[in-house]
């Protein structure tokens, strides 16, 4: 049987090759600080019911329920809005809002106040988002009627000074159904304006309304 002659070039095979134990490579020399101490940590992999980021959140169920209730409430508000929007304009005008108030047993005299507070872009009607804002605030007003006056106060205080001037008080008295003329408002402010700056802050207004 033919056998090839040995490879006789000088320097071949290289010295030290193959190394003893080549079939199983030598162990990688350990480096200082590797692997890091404490890794893998005790308790890994995570226990059942635990996420990769820590123990289970005990309030997760309540937050999920809150989201579900919020979605249900939003769907109900959408149905109410669609039933009130008779002209299918996508907005509620004062007449449609007055109809809604009559159905809910609320005096229509509150329509101008609601429009002043929640018609943010002064379009003369309420969008669905503005209607939702009204519904959310009214839930709080039921337990705290003073909050409604606070909303009206902020809506009239357009220059954000934290107080109402004479002209703004005139508008306020008109919206709450107690219109006054300029002299009446001036005399009224002189009697209740404790700091004598002819402006009314919210507390002074509440003292007048006794709320």
Describe this structure in words.
This protein has 211 residues and is mainly alpha-helical. Among the domains are: 61-143, Recoverin, domain 1; 160-211, Recoverin, domain 1 (Orthogonal Bundle). Helix content is 46%, strand content 2%. The chain contains eight helices and two strands; from the N terminus they run H-H-H-H-H-E-H-H-E-H. It has helices spanning 60-84, 94-104, 111-118, 128-141, 146-156, 166-175, 182-192, 202-209; strands at residues 163-164, 200-201. It has a two-stranded antiparallel sheet. Helix 1 (60-84) crosses helix 4, helix 3 (111-118) packs across helix 5 and helix 6 packs across helix 7 (182-192). Mean pLDDT is 76; it is low at 49-54.
Features:
elongated, mainly alpha, 2 strands, 46% helix, Recoverin, domain 1, 211 residues, two-stranded antiparallel ribbon
Annotate the secondary structure layout.
Elements: H1 60-84, H2 94-104, H3 111-118, H4 128-141, H5 146-156, E1 163-164, H6 166-175, H7 182-192, E2 200-201, H8 202-209
Antiparallel strand pairs: 1-2
């Amino acid at each position: 049987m033919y056998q090839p002659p040995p490879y006789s070039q000088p320097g071949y095979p290289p010295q030290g090759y193959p190394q003893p134990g080549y079939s199983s490579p030598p162990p990688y020399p350990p480096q200082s600080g590797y692997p890091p101490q404490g890794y893998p940590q005790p308790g890994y992999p995570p226990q059942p019911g635990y996420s990769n980021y820590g123990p289970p959140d005990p309030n997760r169920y309540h937050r999920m329920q809150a989201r579900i209730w919020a979605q249900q409430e939003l769907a109900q508000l959408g149905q109410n809005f669609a039933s009130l929007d008779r002209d299918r304009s996508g907005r509620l005008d004062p007449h449609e809002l007055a109809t809604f108030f009559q159905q809910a047993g609320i005096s229509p005299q509150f329509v101008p106040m609601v429009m002043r507070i929640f018609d943010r872009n002064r379009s003369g009607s309420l969008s669905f988002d503005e209607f939702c804002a009204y519904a959310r605030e009214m839930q709080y007003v039921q337990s705290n009627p003073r909050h409604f006056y606070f909303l009206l106060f902020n809506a009239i205080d357009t220059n954000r000074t934290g107080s109402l001037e004479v002209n703004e008080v005139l508008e306020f008295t008109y919206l709450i159904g107690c219109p006054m003329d300029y002299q009446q408002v001036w005399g009224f402010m002189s009697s209740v304006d404790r700091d004598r700056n002819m402006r009314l802050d919210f507390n002074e207004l509440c003292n007048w309304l006794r709320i």
